[in-house]
Amino acid sequence: MRVAEAIELGAKTERELRTLSKGRRVEARVQQRASVILLAAQGWQNKDIADQVKLDRRQVALWRRRFIEGGVQALLQDAPRSGRAPSVTSAVESHILRTTLYEQPAAARHWSARSLASRLGLSATTIRRVWQRHGIKPHLPDLQGLL
Hints:
By secondary structure, the chain is mainly α. The chain is 58% helix and 0% strand. The chain starts with 10 loop residues before the first helix and ends in a 13-residue tail after the last helix.
């Protein structure tokens, strides 16, 4: 059976954790994490802490480890995550920009988001987002200087 690392708290750290665990303007997840550490410092086992604060025992072990490595500051932040993969790749984005800047539509003076979207098989919203990200406004005459 594995035994969790003991946590020793100084007076200042304990006071800080108690403030976080009881504060009214503190996020609920931060309160929960502070409670985990306070109970761990009292010598509770992870499974008992998990029952008390309504977490999984693995989450208790995770927050105990993060506290040991990073102190109180580690409880205030979530770990960075990868996030959602971009729906528009850089190749698609460059194709949109190239078409916008260097090709002219057959029946108009400039591209509209809808006309370019139908030509490229994308949504008009995607076209607008790429244009906005790069500051492109095809309806303005300044674009002609870029050609």
